[in-house]
Amino acid sequence: MPAANAVWAVDFMSAPLYGGRRFRTLNILDEGVREGVAIEVDTSLPAERVIRVLEQVVEWRGRPQALRLDNGPELIAERFMAWCAEHGIELRYIQPGKPAQNGFIERFNRTYRTEVLNAYVFESLDQVREISAEWVLTYNEERPHDTLGGMPPAVYRDRLETRFSPFEVSP
Question: Which three-class secondary structure state does DSSP give residue 20?
Fold first, then answer.
């Protein structure tokens, strides 16, 4: 049975603002419950920033057992790998050029690109952040997922955490 916080998938995306300046997103997805746990937006997202985002998410969400990620420079940086080791987080790197090995985040990214990054002409990073935050909230709390029995990820996770079978009706 899938479990929350077993494996988080991590990936970066890139898109332009209206004026042509590019920004990046750091997307983190809990594979077990298909919940988007973070979308961080900025022009630069170095290893220290990735660590800071993970620290914030771990504080309210709990620590994942492992991260599934590619071999990008931010994710193979010595400081990042040391932080993960200090926190007992296993790193599961995919093979270069094999994004299908990180399929859950690739699916999430495709949906995010279609529904957010390609659907709007962004004028500022704050606008990207605001629209992304609204989208991930809807994705997690309202959008039914076939793989979760038609439940949104947050509902599915709540059912797992309250020890009900996710597919039972709670009393």
Answer: coil
